[in-house]
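Complex record, three chains
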Amino acid sequence: MAIEAQRMQAEESSKSTSPASGDAVSPSVEGSAVAVKSESEAVVRLDDVSVYYGSFRAVRDVTMPINKNEITAMIGPSGCGKSTVLRSINRMNDLIPTARVEGLVSYMGIDLYGEDVDPVEVRRRIGMVFQKPNPFPKSIRDNITYGPRIAGIAKNEWDDLVEQSLRSAAIWDEVKDRLDDSALGLSGGQQQRLCIARAVATKPDVLLMDEPCSALDPIATGRIEDLMQELKNDYSIMIVTHNMQQAARVSDRCGFFTTELDSQSDRRTGQLVEFDETEKIFSNPSDERTENYVTGRFG
Amino acid sequence: MAIAQPLLDKKTSERVKSQLETGGFNLAEGAFKWALIGTLVFALLVLTVLVYDVVVDGFPVFSDRLDTFMANPSRTRADETGIFQGLRGTFWIGVFVILLTFPIGIAAAIYLEEYATDNWLTRTININIRNLAGVPSVVYGILGLTIFVGILKGVYGDVALSRGNTTTAGGLTLAALALPVVIITSAEAIRAVPSSLREAAYGVGATKWEVIKSHILPYAAPGILTGTLLSLARALGEAAPLILVGAVQGKLGPRTGFFELQQLGEKFTAMPIVITDMAKQPGSEWQPVTAAAIVVLLLVVLTFNAAAVILRNRFERKRQG
Amino acid sequence: MAVATPQPAGLLSGNSRRRARERVVHIIVAAAALTSILVSIGIVGSLLYRAVEFVAGLADPGAVDLAEARNGIGFSNLWSDKWAPRFFDFDVKTLLVGSLVVTVVAMAVAAPIGLGSAIYLSEYASDRVRKVVKPILEILAGIPSVVLGFFALRWIAPNVVGNVFDGADGQSLLAAGLGVGLLTIPLMASISEDAMRSVPRALRMASAGLGARKRTTTVSVVLPAAVSGLVAAGIVATSRAIGETMVVFLAAGASGNTALFTVNPLERGSTMTAAMASQASGTDGTISELGFGSLFFVGFVLFVITLTLNLIADRFVRRVREVY
């Protein structure tokens, strides 16, 4: 499956790297002033990315960057392919046998689906936080050290790393006295911050967050949102959320997705309608569909 | 206040009341329920009484001559015979199952659940394993007789005291018999591992094998252990395949020590075979000895079985709670 | 906006030692999975090879001592009035009918009792009862068949068959069938219970909501909904009963691997499995190559029958999965 994706992708990328490729990019992105600025700072870029499950195209023609030290949000109604796009960035979609990616996903200019790329290394550099807190059924300490351990980081650095990671996830004070207790004994919000700590312990550049607050209460959600603002000093973050207010509060840039009936498959395919600075998306969107969504007229 | 007036007149109210209250007893309902209880009680009773009866029958042997009964080889007199060789054979068969079937079966389950993509080969293997689980045990004996005995005849030649029907042949045969059950139950246990756990581990950059080793196998361990114990219990209780492989019914030659590896190339017997042989002896003096041998076999087999069932139930409850 | 030309993987190429280890593990587990195929090939291959050899031996007996063969050797030996390989009587129908009789008796015991127990455990029993009874039933399912064989020989044969039907020692197809039936009850009960518990609770609620009593709900809602699984349970149990060896070998009363054709459960007889076991146990002295080969022929027939039953059962089980 992966080989197939690589092959298709290779064809695709050769197309999109040609000088005329600007035509293929969706107009909304092309038109915005940020696009030029973003290019120099993009850590991850998606260019004309489509993701398929078998023959079904779940999302099509997505073009957007993740800029350095910014929070990029993806919003839109459920089932529009936001999570699918997110998972294509750290190759989590490889775990679904039928999933296939077309288009170019690049990290620091490297094609993530290129032949010599090891998905394991990709996931170490592009960390992920999931919708439901999913700590390992092990101690708090082991949750943090697992990533560094398999990445071959020396044992004597682990203790520092544990403290550092837990501090940067703003949970150190709550757990420092019980590092050897089971992580499953923590509250939902604490578990999610532990998962963030676990993700930063491998020293990634990018953090992907897949609706990280959807299973949490408002107070825990607020904590995570505050935390994200701190984390963006060190990481580039992409977050999927179906909570518009959250996207408005935390993100610097925002992409709005929606679904459209695909004429060839007769199923709903997700697509990126508009990508811009968050402020612009929420105050003065250029697409009518975006406006309808952010003003609550649909979705 | 508005409801001070009764909703129904007295006659209707009486009728409704009587209808509502007849639910207490209903002849057909009761008879049906008690018939069901009867079947369950019958099933439990016959099997437990059988076990109880065997224990009572065999008890004199344990109280009179436990030592000679355990230490003697098969003899032609009921009051002298022992189960040493049977226990020894059963022990070694267990070694074969544990050393061969467990690792191969668990590895195969890992392949099917974590590695295999959905293609014709995977489907073939899956169908094949399900069918293997349903093949009668005596047919595995044919596999053992034709292939294992045939090959081992070449290995050991006429030097050893067998023509290939050795402990090794018996062990390999029952290892093959236990394989499908181990694969099926291990695969089920692995399938039950929540995908969020897999994602968490892959998400921090673990390789497939690292995910399996540190997260999937520990989580699935109780389920896998249950399956392996059940299959071990089943293999140790099997007689039919061993008869085909040529396990010795009756007197068995040299007295090789319990743990001596040399016997792998010698003729063998096992507890179920010893019991078969004893059961077929005509005299009534054989009855207590047979019962005693059965008690020993049941002790081994039902212990593994009970451990498996208890283990599974405990973990099921824990995971749900 | 132009797109940067992708660079070589470089910092994303990962650790080559880790990747090599992944490949080694992949090969090992794949090889383990293929072992199961080898076992099947071994079984089918040895059965086919030796069964064909036996049939070829019938066509061309070669140096067989014809003095033992009453009517010479040929395919007609597969159709007579008894199973006696020593005398080249290979009447397969004797064994087939013997297996059939034992299986019918066994299922007459196991089906109602197993099903009844399953209905009680699934529909009536309180959680506390089920928590105690089900494990006991599962543990009893592990009783080795040789134990049931002993029980059938020493207790069922004289006390049930002998007393009730006025036989001498009671060894008969009936005694063997009863033993096999007892052996099969836990299996029947456990698969049936699974089938009934997979019926959604909503169906029971809907029925109860219409004012149906428990028995009505059970009989006219739960059982029909679970019918595929129950049929599968019956077929799996049947297959197990046909393949059961030791009970019949000990209690059916055929000695020296000789059995006359009979459909009467009260008579001594043999089955496919018992014939194989007694052929191999060598209690009937030396035997010709051709006579011994009958073991594989019978084994092949048995294999085909049980395989067919299992495939049918699999169909039914899958149907249950598709529905719920």
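Note: The interface with chain C takes residues 13, 16-17, 19, 21-22, 25, 29-30, 35-36, 39, 45, 47, 104, 106-112, 114-118, 120-122, 125, 152 of chain A (CB under 8 Å).
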